[in-house]
Amino acid sequence: MATAYSLSTGNAKGSLEQVSINDSRRIFNFGERVSELAPQQSPFFVYLSKVAKASTDDPVFKFLEQRHQWQRRNFILKTAIASSIAKGSDTASLKVVCGYDKYGVESASGKSAAPQYFVVGQVIRLAGKAMRIKSVDSVGDGESATYAAGTAATFSEITCTCLEASGAIAADKLGQIVGSAWAEGSLDPDGWKDELYSREGYCQIFKTAIQLFSGTALATRYRGRPDEYRRVWSEKLMEHKMDIEHAMLYGVGASDEAASAGPVRYSWGIVPYTEQYGNVFSYTYANSDYDAFIDTMESFFAPESGNSGDKLVLASRKVLAWLNKLGSNSFLSNTVGADQYRMDVQNIKGAFGHMVTRVNTLFGNLHFVAEPLFRNQDEDMAVAIDLANVKYRPLSGNGVSRDTHVITNVQNNNVDGRKDMILTEAGLEISLPETHAVMKWS
């Protein structure tokens, strides 16, 4: 049976510069430094470690998403106003819907969710005409109803006083709330609130073992690198880091509660999570798709979606080559050749050792960085990540850190040899998936 080497995993005594991996049964915390190993090989892990790291004290961590609906209180009229309305007259009951639910999540069935934000006294603008809400029906609380024959949906029902004369208004016209207006000495209004959306993430346990070296092998001087154990030790640390990079890119979140040794948890990766819950944009390498690229950026950077205005874009080398080519079918040529005011493309030195191609669009900035793991079947892919809405979550609680650390001498006491192990327990938190996008070229 292996010796119990420590009760405080992940907490090293003294600085790393003052200790040796040959210290018997030591635990070395590499959580703050492992990302610095060859940063070009694992750019996503580097950026997560440097700018988006926040520990969690639960391996199944909950987090909340807030989408501020006051930024987009727009709606669609689903019942036509058949005849003209005089100034000061009231409308009949109007059924209105919107494209997102009370959490601000886009409605799966299209423009068929009940707006939660109508209250008496608000001023709306509908088909270019101003109206003041006089009453709000209880259907606005989210009760199921039908606004057209055979079409099940939820809606809010409002009655308005017209502030100006209006002609007939057809169904499916767009409107929005433009403020509120109250009389002097009037009572307090009703209120409304948006809801927080709850999501769940998992910490995945990563383990990398350095194979058992016999005492004879440890004492043998080898050609090339005399200390074979130190050579393998450094390679395994790189292997462990790349395992995390792969998982943060490609993992699918799950918890296998049926495992005999305890639950096995899997962290979500940014690519499958974004493909399932976020945006997927498709382009071609041809000239014609330059305009399509600009069109998608217009909606992708919409501020009401919670965007920060800057995206880290991990891209394959093939996509980066297309960005920087000057030929007739290249992105750079299409950018500055036809209209120099449409976009600015620059190659700059990144803060963490990467070369960055910065694409400054009218709507926001894209920072392209080469991702070596996007190759073979993913050579035509990039993923745009809003770093304000992702976090690297290592497990840490009760004075115990499960961030990346090395545990030396995990072999049994009666073994004539040595074995070390590298361990990390961490997961990826991805919030507001609509602020991320998978981009695919063909």
Report what the structure shows.
The chain is of the alpha+beta class. The protein has 2 domains: 16-66 and 196-442, phage-related protein like fold (Alpha-Beta Complex), CATH 3.90.1690; 69-191, M1 Pyruvate Kinase, Domain 3 (Beta Barrel). Helices cover 17% and strands 32% of the residues. It has 7 helices and 26 strands. The protein has a 7-stranded mixed sheet, with helices on both faces. Strand 18 and strand 19 (365-370) form a beta hairpin. The radius of gyration is 29 Å and the shape is elongated. The two termini are 56 Å apart.
In total, the number of strands is 26
Supply the number of helical segments: 7
Query: What's the CATH first level of the largest domain?
Result: Alpha Beta
How would the global form be characterised? elongated
Distance between the termini: 56 Å
What is the CA-atom radius of gyration, in angstroms? 29 Å
CATH architecture of the largest domain: Alpha-Beta Complex
Determine the mean pLDDT.
81
Structural class: alpha+beta
- Residue ranges: pLDDT <50 for 5 or more in a row? 1-19, 139-152
Outline of the structure:
The chain is an alpha+beta fold and 442 residues long. The chain has helices spanning 43-51, 215-219, 228-250, 270-277, 289-300, 317-324, 331-338, and strands at 27-29, 60-65, 74-77, 94-97, 122-126, 129-136, 144-148, 151-154, 156-162, 174-180, 197-202, 204-214, 254-256, 264-266, 279-283, 310-315, 344-349, 355-360, 365-370, 381-385, 390-394, 396-397, 400-401, 405-407, 417-430, 437-441. The protein is built from 7 helices and 26 strands.
